[in-house]
Amino acid sequence: MNIIAIANQKGGVGKTTTSVNLGACLAERGVRIIVLDLDPQANATSALGLVPGEQDSIYQSLINGAPLSSLVVQTKYPNLSIIPSDLELAGCEIELARADDHLIRLRRILQEFKVTEMCDYLFLDCPPSLGVLMTSALAAADELIVPLQCEYFGLEGLAKIVGVHEQIKSSGANPEVVLEGIVMTMADSRTNLSSLVINDVRRVFPEVTYRTIIPRNIRLGEAPSYGQSIIEYAPTSSGAISYRNLAEEFLQRHAPVPVPS
Question: How far apart are CA 95 and CA 66, in angstroms?
């Protein structure tokens, strides 16, 4: 099982959209995916058709010691499960911060969870902040994927998240976490700015920036309100095509994990 944090401290850049739709596209290919919703806003939870608060969240494991396997909920999509979130998780930041092991508690829980082999990839959908939950996710992850909005301020956000990634590595909390990829999101082909941002990121991070670019697409914004992934809500849209392409590129990068035919 590979643990992948999908993180960017800037809000509205496509973290949850990527967690849900990349997960759905991989599940469609037969890859076993669990999305762990670490955001108290619970957008990934509702986007996959669940009602936040109706099931226990990761809070029960982080604070009360519940086994993580008991929190996994199967979604309506084969091969795609979720560990839901709810508003209770908002208080987790304060409670965790008081604990001596706040930075590595999630890491310890997830390492134990690895033994169960319940999935091929566990996606950590991180909150838009530099708080305890996001840094805990980086301390627990094998890899980091950064969704990056194709705008100028996106470049500033990228510098910050890359800096935090390096701090987590150098602190000893998780020296093995790898910056696996940068996914350019909300690209607008009608503007020069999107092209400039994409070119700048590819120049600085040529090896990790994904070739697939996620366009600004109204269907991607509408799908969560129906509790659906983009490949269910609008399977022929540019958003669905792009996320299927991203899933294919992701699998090419992670060739050691077998993909059912």
Answer: 16
The SS3 of residue 72 is: coil
In a domain, 122, yes or no: yes
Which two tokens mark 146?
Answer: 């950064």
Residue with tokens 């999908």: 6
Q: β-pairing, 80-83 with 73-74?
A: antiparallel
Is 136 domain-assigned?
A: yes
Backbone phi and psi for residue 119, each to the nearest 5 degrees, phi listed first: -155, 170
The answer to whether residue 206 sits within a structural domain is: yes
User: Domain total for the chain?
Assistant: 1
Residue 78, Cβ neighbours under 10 Å: how many?
A: 11
Q: What is the CATH number of the domain that holds 214?
A: 3.40.50.300
Per-residue pLDDT tens over the stretch 174-204: 999 999 999 999 998 777 888 899 999 999 9
Residue 131: other Cβ atoms inside 10 A = 16
- The verdict on residue 258 lying in a domain is no
Which two structure tokens, joined as six digits, stand for 45?
């939870």
pTM over 0.90: yes
